[in-house]
Amino acid sequence: MIPVIHELTSPFSIRIESANQRLRLVVLKDDCEFVCRKESLKNLKGFLSGDTDSLFKGRLQLHRSADEILVEAKKEVIGKINTEYFQRLLLVNPE
Predict the structure, then answer these.
(1) Rounded to whole angstroms, how far apart are CA atoms 77 and 91?
(2) 61: Cβ–Cβ under 8 A, 6 or more apart, which residues?
(3) pLDDT band, residue 93 (cuts 50/70/90)
(4) Average pLDDT over residues 46-73
(5) Phi/psi of residue 45, each to 5°?
(6) Once rounded to an integer, what is the mean pLDDT over residues 81-90?
(7) Are 9 and 79 in contact (CB under 8 A)?
(8) Cα(17)–Cα(89) distance, rounded to whole angstroms?
């Protein structure tokens, strides 16, 4: 399985890769791993469908608004991803 990378605010990007039965979301800073989090596809889809406005606690957090997801790393918003685009990224990484 090929990891999917999405550019955030420079110098950050986010990579989504398969990790056994879960997905691993990795924030990169200048192509070096900055923070990461493993989560099930089911929980990520629940987040996107409106079960909750925020996902994760700690160094990596995702916050959903009407049509975008804010990516927060180490208490700083480092970029955003269109919600529909994020859903398509998850389809590239089926369980």
Answers:
(1) 25
(2) 54, 55, 71, 72, 73
(3) low
(4) 90
(5) -65, -35
(6) 89
(7) yes
(8) 10
Here the tokens at position 79 are 């970029």
Does the bond joining 3 to the residue before it have cis omega, within 30 degrees of 0? no
Tell me the two tokens of residue 37. 């989090």
Distances (CA, A) of 59 to 52, 66, 73, 78, 94: 18, 23, 5, 12, 25
Among residues 63, 11, 19, the alpha carbon closest in space to that of 37 is found at 19
**What number of residues does the chain have?**
95
pLDDT digits (tens, 9 = 90+) for 6-41: 899 999 999 999 888 899 999 999 999 999 999 999
Q: Report d(CA 58, CA 78) in Å as an integer.
A: 15
Amino acid symbol at 22: R
